[in-house]
Amino acid sequence: MDPKVLIMGFLALPVLASAQGFDYTYVEGGYVNSELDTGLANVDGDGLGLRGSLALNDKFHTFAKHATQDLDLDVDTTEIEIGAGRSWRIRENVDFIGEISWVNAEVDTPFGNTDEDGFGLGAGLRARTNSSLELEGRINYVDLNNSDTSFSLLGRYYLWDSFAIGGGLDFDDDDTAWNVGVRAEFGNRD
After folding, report:
1. Rounded to 5 degrees, what angle do the CA atoms 14, 15, 18 make?
2. What pLDDT does 6 receive?
3. Bridge-partner residues for 120, per DSSP?
4. Three-state DSSP class for 128?
5. pLDDT digits (tens, 9 = 90+) for 15-47
6. Taking a C-beta distance cutoff of 8 angstroms, is the pair 153, 127 a contact?
7. Angle at CA 173, nearest 5°, toward 169 and 179?
8. How far apart are CA 170 and CA 126, in angstroms?
9. In 3-state terms, the chain is what percent helix, strand and coil (to 5)?
């Protein structure tokens, strides 16, 4: 096959992506890198995250998330989150999302382990700027042993109608994390 035809076909893929609505049935996974300020020292680490969502209808969805990280000083973390959400169409290609969840966080250290359960609340906007680019901004509240409010900024570039590459940034007063990954969508955009 002629390389020029292959390159032109690849460049045309974003034009083929639909700009209609959002899909809330998907699975995504990727690499996570974190820097935590513990008060005594900065701790760095990285790991993997996996999240899936299932649309129940055009307004409600359920989701689950699992993330693990290996941090400095022989510290390992595991987080599991299971919840439900609702989306409201604000205008064409812009949804407001609200979510509630159960959260479990486990921290393993050389000096002992902690395992905490709590709840999470999230709210944000999901917007398609064109047929290929989606942006999302969120505020997240998690109440475990201590409560924490964080902010998330995410971007996804759709190579095909149902497959995107993306990245994001999560931050609060003491912690910063960035991630890169892929998303495959399996439902219909509403």
Report:
1. 85
2. 38
3. 101, 142
4. strand
5. 333 345 799 999 999 999 999 887 777 889 999
6. no
7. 15
8. 16
9. 10, 70, 20
pLDDT in tens, 77-114: 999 999 999 999 999 999 999 999 999 999 998 999 99
Sign of the four-CA dihedral 91, 27, 62, 142: negative
Asked if 45 and 29 count as a contact pair (C-beta separation under 8 A), the reply is: no
In total, the chain counts a number of residues equal to 190
Neighbours of 177 (CB within 10 A): 22
Cα–Cα distance for residue pair 26/162, rounded to 1 Å: 9
C-alpha triplet 138, 136, 58: angle, nearest 5° = 95
State the pLDDT confidence band at 190, using cuts at 50, 70 and 90.
low
Stated pTM of the model: 0.84
Class of 3-185 in CATH:
mainly beta
**134, 18 contact by CB (below 8 A):** no
Burial of 33 by CB count in 10 Å (0-12 exposed, 13-18 middle, 19+ buried)?
A: middle
> 114: helix, coil or strand?
strand
What H or E segment, with its residue span, contains residue 12? helix 3-16
Contacts of 146 (CB under 8 A, 6+ apart): none
Helix (H, G, I), strand (E, B) or coil at 70: strand
Q: Which amino acid is at 49?
A: G
